[in-house]
Design a protein that fits this description.
With 244 residues, the chain is an alpha/beta fold. It has eight helices and 13 strands. Strand 5, helix 4 and strand 6 form a beta-alpha-beta unit. The longest helix has 15 residues.
């Protein structure tokens, strides 16, 4: 089981608002997993599953970076990049490709892509490469509080202190990481697969029973004797929201 990673300062735009990332992949599961990992970093994320929609989304959202699949059902990644560059000449682009031939990498970088990762990839690698690209393009480390708050529940990402209604809650490293993931996505239903991928770094589908086990551990510590905050959405996953 993975221990909680070191806390990395969040990136923001120069005005202090969250950075915006456009994720483009025709495989919905991959796009959603990448999006969840980026939202976990505190970033705003838009998704598109075709090249045409990607170009329109880039015009509408003015992203700070783009994660772009090379193989799309309508336009290939190189054509999408060419059209995006017409309106956003400086936006950093990270290519995703299932092809690892040297000529494919060269073609993407020559066309104006800034970096690439080859499928299958780790979400941590995608996040790390995007961080590097956005720092070079002017994103800044946020000087914001490290405390997450949902209702009367608080979690300090720096000190690892967790409290509910002022009462301290002691968690293991894995329980802390699971709760942090839930608190970074309040009111959002998270599937077992998403939780496994983010907290345990298992491949999509992994061993879902470990999620059920640790959710039960968290409930005993966070919800015991109080109005529940952690809820099971049958057939969908789990959601954390303020108690009524």
């Amino acid at each position: 089981m993975a221990a909680a990673p070191d806390v990395v300062p969040r990136l923001t735009r120069p005005d202090g608002s969250p950075v915006r990332v456009l994720v483009v992949d025709d495989e919905v599961n991959i796009a959603e997993l990448i999006s969840m990992a980026l939202r976990y970093e505190g970033w705003q994320v838009e998704t598109a599953h075709t090249g045409t929609r990607a170009v329109a989304a880039a015009r509408a959202t003015e992203p700070d970076a783009v994660v772009l699949d090379m193989m799309l059902p309508d336009l290939d990644g190189l054509e999408v990049l060419r059209r995006m560059r017409g309106t956003h000449p400086d936006v950093p682009v990270l290519f995703l490709t299932a092809r690892d031939a040297v000529e494919d990498r060269i073609a993407g970088l020559t066309a104006g892509g800034d970096d690439y990762v080859t499928k299958p990839f780790s979400l941590e690698e995608v996040v790390a490469r995007l961080r590097a690209l956005m720092r070079r393009s002017g994103a800044q480390q946020a000087a914001t509080s490290s405390v997450l708050t949902v209702g009367d529940l608080t979690l300090d990402e720096d000190s690892h202190e967790v409290r509910r209604a002022g009462a301290e809650i002691t968690l293991t490293a894995t329980e802390f990481e699971l709760l942090r993931f839930l608190m970074r996505n309040p009111r959002r239903v998270l599937s077992k697969a998403q939780i496994l991928d983010r907290v345990w770094n298992y491949d999509f589908g992994g061993q879902a029973n470990v999620v059920e086990l640790y959710i039960s551990y968290l409930r005993k510590k966070v919800d015991a004797g109080r109005d529940p905050m952690i809820h099971t959405m049958r057939g969908a996953g789990y959601v954390l929201k303020p108690a009524p």
